[in-house]
Specification:
143 residues; 7 helices; 0% strand
């Protein structure tokens, strides 16, 4: 019998179920979303994402911008369930006590990285739609 993958363990965990519920509730609270964004940015900077996972760092930055635009009311063209999932993944990311505790050197962020990659695969269309919107609306006209 094949062993369960890390992402399967995360998705089946009680902790993941709790952060998904928390994410759904947080989508309605602009102030708490902005606090979460600060915590997410701080964790990303403190963990000093290595070159090998620079793609994940870019994904995290996009995820944070997505939540910020949503919290500010600038971007709302997203399904409620999708936004709750995005916020839930951020809650998981900033939590030091998850499937693999962050206090474990190097391996401690493996579950966070796996979950961010999973999110971008599962919500690929929603995230691409936001990214397109962002490029169109956040670009400053020249001249």
């Amino acid at each position: 019998m094949a062993s369960e993958s890390l992402i399967q363990k995360i998705l089946k965990s009680t902790f993941f179920a709790k952060v998904m519920q928390r994410g759904a509730g947080l989508t309605r609270n602009r102030a708490l979303l902005l606090v979460l964004l600060q915590q997410g940015a701080r964790k990303m900077e403190n963990k000093g994402f290595a070159e090998g996972i620079s793609e994940v760092k870019s994904q995290l930055q996009l995820m944070l911008r997505f939540i910020k635009a949503y919290a500010k009311g600038e971007y709302r063209d997203v399904a409620a369930r999708s936004m709750a999932t995005i916020v839930g993944v951020l809650v998981y990311f900033i939590s030091p006590l998850d499937v693999i505790p962050d206090v474990l050197p190097i391996i401690g962020i493996a579950d966070d990285v796996a979950l961010v990659v999973w999110l971008f695969n599962v919500l690929e269309k929603e995230i691409a739609k936001f990214s397109d919107w962002e490029k169109k609306n956040k670009t400053l006209p020249i001249g």
